Amino acid sequence: MKALLVIALSSIFLGCSSQNDDFMQGRWCGKIESINNTAELILDYNDGKALLSIAEQGLLKYPVSELNISSNIIKFKLMLGKTIIQFEGKRIIDKNNDTEYIKGIYLQSGVTRHFELNHIGNTPIEKPYNNMIDEGKDETILLNRNKIVLSSRLRMPYKDSHQWAALIIPGSGPTDGDGNSKLLPAPNNSLLRLSNVLAKNGIPSLRIDKRGTGYSNNIGEEEIQDFTTFIEDSKAWLKKLKEYYPNRKIAIICHSQGSLIAMIVANLEGCDALISISGSGFPIDETLNSQTSNFNEELREKASNIISQLKDGKTVNDVPISLNMLFRKTVQPFLISYMKYDPRKEIEKASYPIMIIQGEKDTQTTIKDALELKAHAENAEIVILPLMNHLLRDVNNLMENKASYCEDRLPLSTDLEKKLMDFLNKTFHKNKNQ
Fold first, then answer.
1. Is residue 58 very low, low, confident or very high in pLDDT (cuts 50, 70, 90)?
2. SS3 label, residue 336
3. Strand ranges (DSSP E) for 47-110?
4. With bands split at pLDDT 50, 70 and 90, how would you rate the model's confidence at 20?
5. Which H helix or E strand runs over 29?
6. Which runs of E-coded beta strand occur in 158-268?
7. b or e along 101-137 (b: 16 or more beta carbons within 10 Å of the residue's beta carbon)?
8. What confidence category does residue 11 fall into, taking pLDDT thresholds of 50, 70 and 90?
9. Residue 345 CB neighbours (<10 A)
10. What predicted TM-score, i.e. pTM, was given to this entire model?
11. pLDDT tens digits for 76-100?
């Protein structure tokens, strides 16, 4: 993704030097130019205060500074840490249709580009926060792995059904057992809510902090890690869960990158059911090639060449600055080890019941991934949830989708809970009768 703005988290207070009473309040929507494309721009103006959102860039309802509205000009600034972005637009009033437009330019780091906004009506009322009611209590469990202490939380339901116990394996990046990442400004608690939903249905679950996250935050540099490390850690946690619940059916519930890890672990250690949520259907080298396919031709070729070398097990010294985030030297050993595994081959080996769940509003994995997994697992069940996004929430638009990454406002998808429990109940009784 081409970064339009460098986002820095700080407290910004609105300073309004001048306002015009006839400027339409409510929501303004339009587009803002970046280097190679455009992004959706939203300005919410109410009671003299303006909040700016560029959801595709992770900027959500950010207060503007030095807002100045005259009869035909609007000016304001975004002050993002040390980065200052100046906006200036011309108001165009269509009295016949009772509408207003804004067309203008913004200045960032000496470069000017265009933006435009159209008034579309009132600012939508936000859904209230859905506070989670605890359905169980957590116990912290520690695991010593070669002198490194890893952590997890076991959520034990207040009313235990004594049927299943579940291992929850988180997704990519520095994601902890609650589903939160140090790369995001605030918690979303997606996996904590998933664990709580299981507890509500009488199922204890162990949600693990990956190395470098949560309370498992006592490791060295990222170059000493590889994909196999996460596999071995998850194997150890599965064994620990089986020790806690030797007479239970064991389910592995996995999210995103955790899907591949879970399938490898289940094939090695065994389980009674696996539920893959938002799992990729393709090996990481194919995914990276797909993600870089919209780069300009020169950059795309460089990315493809780097991916090819990593696939062959070779590190790459000459990485362009623009690709450093993806292929920096310290992450290359991880990518090399990651590319050795193919989710299609792993799911083909499965001898346990599988359910593949994919949300249509997911912008990180897609229905194509789910169908690819299903094509290699004849007996797997597949469920497509029309409103669910990558954070397991039902969302209606891009703003809700992006906001769910850094707020814990929405409950988990109702359909997710129903489909998950239907599958576990059916699988339990089927195994019990065999």
1. confident
2. helix
3. 49-54, 59-63, 65-69, 73-80, 83-94, 99-108
4. low
5. strand 26-33
6. 164-169, 205-208, 249-255
7. bbebebebeeeeeebbbebeeebeeeeeeeeeeebbe
8. very low
9. 13
10. 0.83
11. 999 887 889 999 999 888 777 777 8
Half-sphere exposure of 235 (CA within 13 A, CB side): 12
Pairing of strands 249-255, 16-18: unpaired
Name the burial class of residue 3, with classes exposed (0-12), middle (13-18) and buried (19+) by CB atoms within 10 angstroms of its CB.
exposed
> How many angstroms from the chain centroid is the CA of residue 48?
33
Say how many C-beta atoms besides its own lie within 10 A of residue 420's C-beta.
Answer: 25
Joined tokens for residue 102: 């804004």
What digits encode the pLDDT tens for the residues 347-359? 999 999 999 999 9
Separation between Cα atoms, residue 133 and residue 51, nearest integer Å: 31
The label of the residue with tokens 């972005």 reads: 85
State the DSSP code for 48. Answer: T
Q: How many Å from the N-terminal Cα to the C-terminal Cα in the chain? A: 50
Q: Which pLDDT tens digit goes with each residue over 141-182? A: 999 888 888 999 999 999 999 999 999 999 998 899 999 998
Q: Which residue bears the tokens 């100046």?
A: 86
Residue 386: CB partners within 8 Å, gap ≥ 6? 359, 360, 361
Q: What gap in Å lies between CA 58 and CA 54, rounded to an integer?
A: 7
Instruction: 214-217: list long-range contacts, CB under 8 Å, 24+ apart.
Output: 214/151, 214/176, 214/177, 214/178, 215/140, 215/151, 216/148, 216/149, 216/150, 216/151, 216/176
HSE-up of residue 7 (Cα within 13 Å, Cβ side): 18
If we measure between CA atoms, which residue out of 326, 362, 118 comes closest to residue 370? 362
Q: Cα–Cα distance between 45 and 39 in angstroms, integer?
A: 19
Q: Which residues pair with 169 in a beta bridge?
A: 254
Whole-angstrom distance, CA of residue 303 vs CA of residue 335: 13
